[in-house]
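#help-structures
NK: newbie question, is this the right format to request a structure? protein is FecR N-terminal domain-containing protein
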Amino acid sequence: MIKQDFYIANIIARHLSGEITPEESVQLESWRKEDSAHEALFQKICSKE
């Protein structure tokens, strides 16, 4: 689980920096849809810019 958390955090960072690949974008979208808590966390992180 920790590996996946780190991987998702890295993808979110790449999303925020504009460096996300199309494949990572699909994975991020899937993760966000997997659980409402994931979407809430993503929104919270993105709103801190």
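mod (FA): yep, format's fine, and the tokens are attached above. The chain has three helices and no strands.
NK: thank you!
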